[in-house]
Amino acid sequence: MSNKKAPVKRKTSKLKYTIMAICSVLVFLGIWEAVVRLGWVSTDKLPTPTSVISAFFVKLTDTKPDDSTIITHTLVSLEEAVTGLLAAVLIGTPLGLLMGWYKGFDRFVSPIFELVRPIPPIAWIPLMIVWVGIGLTARAIIIFAAAFVPCVINSYTGIKSTSRVHINVAKTFGASNFQMFRKVGVPSSMPMAFAGMRVALSSAWATLVAAELLASNAGLGYMITMGRQLVRTDLIVLGMFIIGVLGFIFTAVFGKIENIVVKWRTV
To answer: What is the sign, positive or negative, of the torsion defined by CA atoms of 197, 195, 224, 63?
Structure first.
C-alpha cells in the first residue's frame, strides 16, 4: 500500500514546489512593477515588467529600431551560442579526460593549456577579426574560448577523482589501461564533466554580448547594445530576459541528458 502512495506523494510534492516557484516569480515581478510605478526608480533607468512584455510582443513583428525582429535576434544568438558551446564540449571534455588519465599526454598539453587558460575570451576579439573577419565564425570562436576552459578543467578533475578501489578491481580482472579509462574513468568522471558543461553554458551566454560586438547586425547582444545606445531600457531588459530563459532551457536539457548518461548515480 505504501508503494502505491509513494508516486502520488512525489507528484504532490513536485506540484507544491512548482507552485511555490511560480509564486516567487510573480511576487518578484509585482514588487518590481510597484517600485517603478510608485516612482521610487525612474522609468528611464528601469522599465516596468509590463513595458518589457509589451516590447516583446511589438518586437515579434516590428524591426525598429535595430532592423530585426526578436525572433531573428534570438535565432542568430542561438546559432552562435550552440556552435561555440557544442565545439567546446566536444573538444574540451575529451581533452580533459585524456589529460587526467594519461600522464604523458597531460605533461605535453598542460603547458599550452595553462598559457591559454588565463586569457579572457574577449581578448581574442581583435585577433579573430584579423584571422576570420567578422561573422558567425568569429563570434562562435569567442564563445568557444569562454566555454572550452570549464569543460577541460571539470572533466580533468572528474577523472582524476576516480576511486582507486574501482581501478584496482579492474586491474584484478585483467583490464588494460585503455579499458580502465573507458569503463571506469570516463563513467566516474561524468558528474563533474556535466557540471563543467553547466559552467561552460553560463560562460558562453556571458560572452555572447561581447562576441556580438564584432560588427554584428543581429543577435540578442546586438539588441542590448542598440538599446543602450538609444536609451531603450525595455530592449536591454528584454534581451537579458530572453538570454536567461534560453539559459534555463539549456540547463534543463543538460540535466535530462545527465540523468540518462549517469543513471547509475545515487540521488
So the answer is: positive
